[in-house]
Amino acid sequence: MDYIKAFLMGGLICAIAQILIDKTKLTPARILVTYVTLGAILGGLGVYKKLIDIGGAGATIPLLGFGNSLAQGVIKAVEKDGLIGVFTGGLTATAGGISAAVFFGYIFSLIFNPRTKK
Amino acid sequence: MERDVKKEQEYKNIAQKYEPKPALLKNIVMAFVVGGLISDIGQFFLNFYLSRGYSMQDANTLVSITMVFLGAFLTGIGVYDDIGKFAGAGSIVPITGFANSIVSPAMEFKREGFVFGAAAKMFTIAGPVIVYGVSTSIIIGLIYYFLK
Questions:
Q1: A66, B42: Cβ pair inside 8 Å?
Q2: What pTM did the predictor assign?
Q3: Among A81-90, A92-101, B14-23, where is mean pLDDT lowest?
Q4: Subunit contact A61:B76, Cβ cutoff 8 A
Q5: How far apart are CA A7 and CA B12, in angstroms?
Q6: Which residues in chain B are closer than 8 Å to A24, comparing Cβ atoms?
Q7: Which residues does B101 contact at the CB level (< 8 Å), separation at least 6?
Q8: Which of A67, A90, B29, B123 counts the highest number of beta carbons within 10 A?
Q9: Does B84 contact chain A (CB < 8 Å)?
Q10: Which SS3 state, helix, strand or coil, does residue B61 take?
Q11: Beta bridge partners of A62
């Protein structure tokens, strides 16, 4: 059942992005920036948590979930450490994903070469 | 010259027939299916890590790391771009697409050097995402701190 919910939630979030790409002048890069910002706002308002409760990985895998993690991390850190938490919480909560992206991104771009265009 | 309304209409009908059909619906369906499938792969790893006794938060972090690894690897071997050709947003919006946006330009610009080529170009798209994401979260943190 959680696979069906994840499929529907993740699919819906991607379908909305596709509509935005086709119907507006938003480029894929702008979609990603828009989604991470929107995810952070929804996370700050506490709304995104409900989408994760419903969709599981379908809500955390899209970039909206990355934004939500940033916001949730900041809120938790502010509760624990006060003002310092404003600056430490976001990246602490997302450190795993960002570090993995930097490291694996660099390693794989060293190992592999772009395919020659036919 | 008198306008031949009938001929005009006929021309319009013919022209309409050969106009490229907007592929919107097909694009949306493909994005939905691929985005959903990538989410299911994430759900599979989430269930796996949870079953190994990790907390929800740790399991989610491990899923992010796993999916980033897969996205970066599939981009390296060229498969992710093949998926992207028909999946559109379905392959862009998931965190695997974030990894793709890092590896793709880094591979491309490697020949311009390993510092200002590969390492700098890694952040062509990831950089703005982090800038806007972190900045938004700091504003949220400030609001939360002062309203708490």
A1: no
A2: 0.89
A3: B14-23
A4: no
A5: 42
A6: none
A7: A29, A32, B92, B124, B125, B126, B129
A8: A67
A9: no
A10: helix
A11: B94
Q: Do B46 and A102 touch (CB under 8 A)?
A: no
Is the Cβ of B67 closer than 8 Å to some Cβ of chain A?
yes
Q: Tokens for B42, please give them.
A: 């994430």
Is the torsion defined by CA of B78, B130, B45, B69 positive or negative? Answer: positive
Is the alpha carbon torsion for A110, B132, A65, B30 positive or negative?
negative
Q: Maximum Cα–Cα distance for chain B, whole Å?
A: 83
B55 exposure class (CB count in 10 Å sphere: 0-12, 13-18, 19+): exposed
**Tens digit of each residue's pLDDT, chain B (148 residues):** 667 788 888 888 888 777 665 688 999 999 999 999 999 999 999 999 999 999 999 999 999 999 999 999 999 999 999 999 999 999 999 999 999 999 999 999 999 999 999 999 999 999 999 999 999 999 999 999 999 8
CA distance A64 to chain B (A): 8
CB contact under 8 A, B125 and A63: no
Question: Which amino acid is present at A33?
Answer: V
**Residue whose pair of structure tokens reads 């796996």 in the numeric block:** B48
Note whether A53 contacts B: Cβ–Cβ < 8 A: no
ipTM of the complex: 0.94
Mutate to test the interface with B, among A42, A87, A108 (most CBs of B within 10 A): A108
CB contact under 8 A, B68 and A101: yes
Which residues in chain B are closer than 8 Å to A111, comparing Cβ atoms? Answer: 76
Taking the domains of chain A in order of start, what are their residue ranges?
2-111
Q: Do B42 and A6 touch (CB under 8 A)?
A: yes
User: DSSP per residue over A11-43, as a string?
Assistant: HHHHHHHHHHHHHSS--HHHHHHHHHHHHHHHH
